[in-house]
Amino acid sequence: MTNCLARSTGMAAMRRNAKKENRRASFYFPLEEDCDTHRLVALALASPYLISMLAALTQFLGDRPSFYYPPEQVLTMKERFHLETPELLRLMVQVIRQFAVVPISNFRVGAAALGSSGAIYCGVNMEWTRVAFAQTVHAEQCCLTNAWHHREPRILMLAASEPPCGHCRQFMNELCGCENLQVISKDSAPMPLHDLLPKDFGPAALEMRGIDATWQGPALRPVGSPKVPADLLQAALEAAQRAHVPYGTGPSGSRSTPLRHLLGCPLENAAYNPTFSPLQVALVRMHCDHKPWTASPRRPASCLVSSPQAPYHVVSIERVPSN
Ligand SMILES: [Zn+2]
Q1: Residue 202 belongs to domain spanning
Q2: Which of 40, 181, 250, 318 has a CA positioned 20 to 30 A from the CA of residue 85?
Q3: Which neighbouring-strand residues pair with 103?
Q4: Which residues are marked as active site?
Q5: Spacing, Cα 213 to ligand 1 middle (Å)
Q6: Spacing, Cα 169 to ligand 1 middle (Å)
Q7: Rounded to whole angstroms, how far apart are CA atoms 253 and 147?
Q8: Cα 107 to chain center, whole Å?
Q9: For the segment 84-128, what is each residue's pLDDT rounded down to a tens digit?
Q10: CA of 163 to the centre of ligand 1 (A)
Q11: Is the pTM of this model over 0.85?
Q12: Is the omega angle on the peptide bond into residue 71 within 30 degrees of 0, that is, cis?
């Protein structure tokens, strides 16, 4: 009886702590409080240790947790909280999912990945109203595109708050080095991607290279003299150099305000879909940098450069001949 009472009291305390944490989280992320309370309480009931670690890590990471943690900061977190990599990734997923952009589904997903450099990258699902659903970004894609942006050579381990959908399993399978990628699917132990996607189809089937964040193509230049601001055009050309277009003629996008450039380029998949568009890459970068969504109303400008063979382009480009 006493034990039951103690357990009950402990649970109540955990629920209070979870609610308290959620109130704190809701102050910064004022969405779906009930859903998050439910999840935090469920997590607390499953593992009081985890909930205390989650609270400590949330406090450590601050109001605006980064989507990128360099190797030295990862080591600091592991030592400070006595965590192994899988546990750290699981907890970071719970922290970062609060930053999902979900005006349609209201269903938050988080992902975190460890790169071969020792850095950790985070990602969330992203939706937009009044835009085709095909433009939505899955948390794993966001996380991996974030790592690609930072030129992370290889991804060794990825954790997600939900089991990765087929779309995301294929996207992971398009990465260089994915044969060594371990996936933590919700609460599971790390398992090889191959176990989640047996009898796969990927770049190797077509003797193509996978998405390699360290790769950069030859220099590009515009054809003719397009009427585009020079700095914007140059930024778009540099973005296009990193395009992963194994099928050939992909465009590169660059959207700009007078204050900054938001760059993107396509990440094509050997399996066609889920190819990531330049706009999606640019939006992921913007969100992972905690940039505001609305561009400056003053003189907004955009530029899309692509090869003349592409179905649409604003500025035609060509390779700079090497001497
Ligand atoms: Zn997915």
Answers
A1: 65-215
A2: 40
A3: none
A4: 140
A5: 20
A6: 7
A7: 19
A8: 16
A9: 999 999 999 999 999 999 999 999 999 999 999 999 999 999 998
A10: 8
A11: no
A12: no
